[in-house]
């Protein structure tokens, strides 16, 4: 057994938005060109202003192409805002900020979907046009919509997340359409690839970003049957989410707010955990192989380091 | 009989794109606030990138709100172009230039049309939001599409006008859907208004911009039955169009390239003509009341002067 990832090995990563995309960008650089398939949550997708918007997929596209805005965690760097300003004058909805260059992605995707092209084909083509050396695929070409039952009623994900800024208390989470959705064909191929070396669950919200993907039929089964190490990178750092409502939601759902809870929820899927050094004290209470490292990714170097440590750890788990 | 337009009188103007919109802007200022209804050609409308684009209506909205780009004759002043630049990177169609702020108009209109709102309601509301002190209405809420049979095949208007830059020789012009289209209700009301004082055909292309409006059932009949002076402002200056393919198309359609031809084609509609001073030599060959003035509108002052002269001339024609 070697503790190095084999050079021509392929990996599959599952990711939601900003934190997950950062690790995915590091993984992309840590493996050989074209050898990573990133499967991205589309439960957050929604129709806004008549446009098909895929927030997590777009964060992946922008992060992996170097176009992401490092300040906001969404949208593009060096963006202009003429559209939004004019839209406000016309009385259009302005709670979801769409930058001028960002709009091109939504308009072009919406046009191609309306012409009958599957979402996964549109996304993988756009990734190529952005010269991203990895495959980026939505989890499904079929609509899955994350809906939150909250104290102020049922909310679509973006209404909860952006418009209401995660304020309402969440009672339960539903992934509408998941049971009928089919995994995107490229995701099935990547998970069944005989050269597959590891599957990585990126540090995204387990309940809002990873769970919708696991709710699509065959996803759990394909991950379990892949016969490669499955490693999750903990989305908690010192017991807190770096960004977003992970711990608030865990609390509201009556879960214990701890990496231990997440490990328990991932128990039937993962072979190992990358734990943040601030949570190292929990190590002995986790009944799985664990590696401990600083998982905060402020710089491109951080991303590459965490990615390499994750892949090296996965290699140690190979049977 | 007074040679002054009565102060509280209403007027209806018919217009296509840039030249017509300039006069319309002058007319709007020449009459009392809210007393002008501008009926605009929608034969140029098309679906582009999944968006409902109304080039002539938008030129009217921008010109009458002071937002028009004086250099281009289309689009907005102080525009940014991030969308177009990003769209090109994604391989989207870029022959029709949509500025970032301009996009807001198309996205918002498309969204409202998809929600079932009639075009005329969307446009009159957008005009209000731009604080335009006039009613702007599309000729119809129903689709009418100007198609040109050319030497390189049938072309939708914008493909001919923008993509092919009016180069192909035109054999004939068709207004698809016109026979089934209904005039927009506001246009009917404005033309039947008992306080109507004049109807002005703005200096737009008679064959591409005014003809589609006249092809909509009841338009000719309502103009003729309005019992008010109908005045056309000649779109030719020194026998040439100020902008656009008017004379090229007249030539290709086998028409004589002259104001006389246009007068003949408007003969059953108009009671008088505003002729440019460069064409004054033709005055005696026109069997209609004619007033002669400099019709070139370079400045806001020019627009107001031509508008006032046109309205004063119309007042002299009142029976």
TrEMBL record, chains A, B:
One of the record's GO molecular function terms: LPPG:FO 2-phospho-L-lactate transferase activity
NCBIfam families: F420_cofD (TIGR01819)
PANTHER family: 2-PHOSPHO-L-LACTATE TRANSFERASE
Taxonomic lineage: Bacteria, Pseudomonadati, Pseudomonadota, Gammaproteobacteria, Oceanospirillales
HAMAP family found in the cross-reference section: CofD
Keyword entries, A-Z: Magnesium, Transferase
Name under which the protein is recorded: 2-phospho-L-lactate transferase
EC number: 2.7.8.28
Top-level taxon: Bacteria
Keyword Coiled coil: no
Pfam families, sorted: CofD (PF01933)
Organism: Halomonas pelophila
Record InterPro entries: CofD, CofD-like_dom_sf, FbiA/CofD
Enzyme class: transferase
């Amino acid at each position: 057994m070697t503790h190095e990832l084999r050079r021509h090995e392929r990996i599959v990563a599952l990711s939601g938005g900003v934190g997950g995309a950062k690790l995915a960008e590091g993984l992309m650089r840590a493996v050989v060109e074209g050898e990573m398939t990133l499967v991205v949550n589309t439960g957050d997708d929604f129709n806004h202003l008549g446009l098909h918007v895929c927030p997590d997929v777009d964060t992946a596209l922008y992060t992996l192409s170097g176009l992401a805005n490092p300040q906001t965690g969404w949208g593009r760097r060096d963006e202009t805002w003429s559209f939004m300003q004019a839209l406000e004058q016309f009385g259009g909805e302005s709670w979801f900020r769409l930058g001028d260059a960002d709009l091109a992605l939504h308009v072009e995707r919406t046009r191609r979907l309306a012409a009958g092209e599957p979402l996964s084909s549109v996304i993988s083509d756009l990734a190529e046009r952005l010269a991203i050396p990895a495959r980026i695929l939505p989890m499904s070409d079929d609509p899955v919509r994350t809906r939150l039952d909250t104290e102020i009623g049922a909310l679509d994900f973006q209404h909860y997340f952006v418009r209401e800024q995660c304020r309402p208390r969440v009672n339960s989470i539903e992934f509408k359409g998941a049971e009928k959705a089919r995994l995107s064909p490229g995701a099935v191929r990547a998970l069944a690839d005989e050269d597959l070396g590891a599957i990585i669950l990126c540090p995204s919200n387990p309940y809002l970003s990873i769970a919708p993907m696991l709710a699509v039929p065959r996803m759990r089964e394909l991950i379990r049957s892949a016969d490669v190490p499955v490693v999750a990178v903990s989305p908690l750092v010192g017991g807190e989410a770096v960004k977003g409502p992970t711990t608030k939601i865990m609390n509201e759902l009556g879960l214990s707010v701890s990496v231990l809870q997440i490990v328990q929820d991932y128990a039937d899927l993962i072979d190992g955990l990358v734990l943040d050094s601030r949570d190292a004290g929990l190590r002995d209470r986790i009944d799985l192989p664990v590696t401990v490292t600083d998982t905060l990714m402020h710089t491109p170097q951080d991303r590459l380091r965490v990615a390499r440590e994750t892949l090296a750890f996965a290699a140690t788990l190979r049977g």
